[in-house]
Design goal:
The protein has 280 residues and is mainly alpha-helical. Helices cover 78% and strands 0% of the residues.
């Protein structure tokens, strides 16, 4: 067999193995999605959104308190992580190209990106819960913000590094100071990519369970007090999925479907936003 024929057969075998691996992955993904949608949609009802989590052994119930708690925690997380992450990304890309402090910040950011979420939850537990004397929604938001901030920082920095140098030089040529060039020229040029990074960070923290177990914990009753333990979907799903009560298990499937749809919607919106901006 000639060298050319061996290369052709090697290529065919490689493509065939790749197709088999892809088919296996798609089959597993579709199986998971089918199971999630089949069991999750069966749990959705009006009571699911209007009633609170039921007591052990009781019938019915919903996840109103967990849904509201999750939305509040994620909202505070977004308000905290977005400005910090964007400003840090601007500093790294525009002002910290040769700074040792910037190099150390990048190193810490990379560590935070790969740090297990349970470690971050334990850190915030020792920092806020143990010292302040109780679980709270604020502690949960801080834990999730520590997960989201590195994502926003790296996304913002990478987007700003893609801005052509000529655009900065043109802004400097008309007398704009460096802070205005960073905020009004370069950041505006990549705002779609930055917004995409923020949305992906929100999607990343939406389903995190371990940090909330050590910080916000849970609350069976409806509450909007962020200084107290708060119900949230990830922890409720974790607790209800392992319970012996059928209605609890059903509610867990419904909560899992809500999180899956939220994450899917955020990712689709981010891709559509970025593609639309790129085409413009």
């Amino acid at each position: 067999m000639s060298l050319y024929s061996r290369r052709i057969w090697t290529n065919r075998v490689g493509i065939a193995l790749s197709m088999v691996a892809m088919a296996f992955g798609l089959f597993a993904l579709l199986w998971i999605l089918w199971t999630l949608f089949y069991n999750g949609f069966a749990a959705l009802s009006w009571e699911f959104f209007t009633e609170d989590t039921p007591a052990p052994g009781s019938e019915g119930g919903g996840l109103r308190n967990a849904i509201v708690g999750s939305l509040m925690i994620i909202a505070v997380t977004t308000l905290v992580s977005t400005p910090i992450g964007i400003l840090a990304g601007i500093y790294l890309a525009e002002f910290g190209t040769t700074s040792k402090f910037a190099a150390m910040t990048r190193f810490v950011t990379d560590i935070m990106l790969s740090a297990p979420s349970i470690v971050i939850g334990l850190f915030v537990y020792a920092l806020m819960v143990a010292t302040l004397g109780g679980f709270s929604g604020w502690a949960g938001s801080v834990a999730l913000a520590l997960i989201a901030i590195p994502v926003v920082v790296r996304t913002t920095e990478n987007m700003l590094l893609l801005v052509p140098t000529a655009l900065r030089e043109a802004a400097f040529a008309v007398g704009a100071p460096r802070w205005q060039v960073s905020l009004k020229v370069t950041l505006r040029a990549v705002k779609a990519g930055v917004v995409t990074g923020i949305l992906l960070a929100i999607a990343r923290v939406t389903g995190e369970t371990a940090p909330l177990l050590f910080t916000a914990l849970n609350n069976q009753f409806y509450s909007t007090d962020m200084s107290q333990p708060m119900g949230n979907l990830p922890v409720v799903i974790f607790q209800f999925a392992m319970s012996p009560y059928d209605n609890w298990v059903s509610l867990a499937w419904g909560g899992a479907l809500l999180i899956a749809l939220l994450v899917l919607g955020i990712n689709i919106f981010a891709r559509v936003l970025f593609r639309k901006k790129s085409s413009d």
